[in-house]
TrEMBL record:
InterPro entries named among the record's database cross-references: Cyt_c-like_dom, Cyt_c-like_dom_sf, Cyt_CIE
Any matching Pfam family: Cytochrom_C
Keyword Transport tagged: yes
Gene3D superfamilies named in the record: Cytochrome c-like domain (1.10.760.10)
Signal peptide range: 1-24
Keyword Isomerase found: no
Domain Cytochrome c span(s) in chain numbering: 34-122
Protein name: Cytochrome c5 family protein
Keyword list, A-Z: Electron transport, Heme, Iron, Metal-binding, Signal, Transport
Length: 123
């Protein structure tokens, strides 16, 4: 007799195997839920100064190898870190992301659009 495994069962196995916070890597469908044109505008005005050159460990826009290890954490986590700010280490180097890229006037939506834009550049 054949048995089928439900999606719910597979989800539970995945969660137990990798932790409840585990997420799939970011997909095109994820970033397309954001306003990528607005994201580019926000990026050009606020984010490019660090992300174009990789300043303070910022992953360079358009350089897949700098983003690939970050994608598995999910878009929501990357946006959360960009809104709140982040300090850490990446491959032995110190990294620093100021909250909202150092511009407190940006809305969470604008930051989310900018992150989605940058991620889209490597998908």
């Amino acid at each position: 007799m054949k048995r089928t495994v439900s999606a719910l069962t597979l989800s539970a196995i995945f969660a137990l195997s990798f932790g409840l916070d585990a997420q799939a890597a970011v997909t095109k469908a994820d970033v397309e839920q954001y306003d990528l044109a607005n994201g580019k505008t926000v990026y050009d005005a606020n984010c490019a100064s660090c992300h174009a050159a990789g300043i303070m460990g910022a992953p360079k826009t358009g350089t897949a190898r700098k983003w690939n290890s970050r994608l598995p954490q999910g878009l929501a986590t990357m946006i959360e870190k960009s809104v709140a700010g982040y300090e850490g280490e990446y491959r032995g180097s110190k990294t620093f992301m100021p909250a909202k890229g150092g511009n407190p006037d940006l809305t969470d939506k604008q930051v989310g659009d900018a992150v989605a834009y940058m991620v889209n550049e490597v998908l």
